[in-house]
Amino acid sequence: MAEPLTPTIRTCAKAVVVHNGRVLLQRATWEGQDCYFLPGGGQLPGEPLDEAARREVHEETGLTVTVDRMLWLREYIGAHHEHAATEAGTHRIEAIFHCTPQGDPGTLGGHAEDQVQTGLEWVELEKVPGLNLLPHALRQPITALATGQPQAGYLGDVA
After folding, report:
1. For the chain, which terminus, N or C, has the lower number of CB atoms within 10 Å?
2. Which parts of the sequence belong to the Nudix hydrolase domain (predicted)?
3. Greatest Cα pair distance in the chain
C-alpha cells in the first residue's frame, strides 16, 4: 500500500505586464495544447514576492519591470481539479502583480525561459477572453484592466 501523499505548498509570483493597452504573455505548448501563460514563477527562500515577480519577468522575457501593485491572489490545489490523480500533491499559491515595463518593451528575450515556452507576445487586453490563457480564471480579470475596473483580491482555488 502506498503511503499517503503530503502536499507541498509552493509560493509563486506572476506578472501582468501592461503597456499601451496590451499584456505580455508567454506562448507555450503544454500537455499537447497551444496556450498562453503569464510570466512568473517560484519564489526563492528569503525573496519578497514583488522581487520574485521582477526577477522571473526578467529571466523569462528580458524585460525589467516596475511592480506597481498586487492584483490577485490565486490558489491551485491539484487534488480539486481535472488532473487530481497526478497532481494530488500540488498546492500552489500565486501572487499576481500589475507591472509596467522599463525601457523598450519591444526588446524581448529572456535567458531562462520556461521549458514549455515557445515565444512571447504582446496581446491587446480586449482579445484575452478568446485566448487559451491558463488558468482560464484569469481571462476576465485581465480583460477588465482595459477599462480600469479590475476586481482585486482573492480569486480562490481556480484552474
Report:
1. N
2. 7-146
3. 56
Q: pLDDT value at position 112? A: 63
Q: Which of 25-34, 35-44, 112-121 has the highest mean pLDDT?
A: 35-44
Amino acid identity at 21: G
Which residues, 6 or more positions from 17, have their beta carbon under 8 angstroms from its beta carbon? 23, 24, 39, 57, 61, 63, 65, 99, 100, 101
DSSP 45-73: TT--HHHHHHHHHHHHH--EEEEEEEEEE
Convert the pLDDT of each residue in 55-80 to its tens digit: 999 999 999 999 999 999 999 998 89
77-105: per-residue pLDDT in tens?
988 988 777 778 889 999 999 999 998 88
Q: For residue 120, give the C-alpha cell.
A: 512571447
Pick the CATH number of 8-157 from 3.30.70.1140, 3.50.50.60, 3.40.640.10, 3.90.79.10: 3.90.79.10
3-state SS of the chain: helix, strand, coil percent to 5?
A: 25, 45, 35
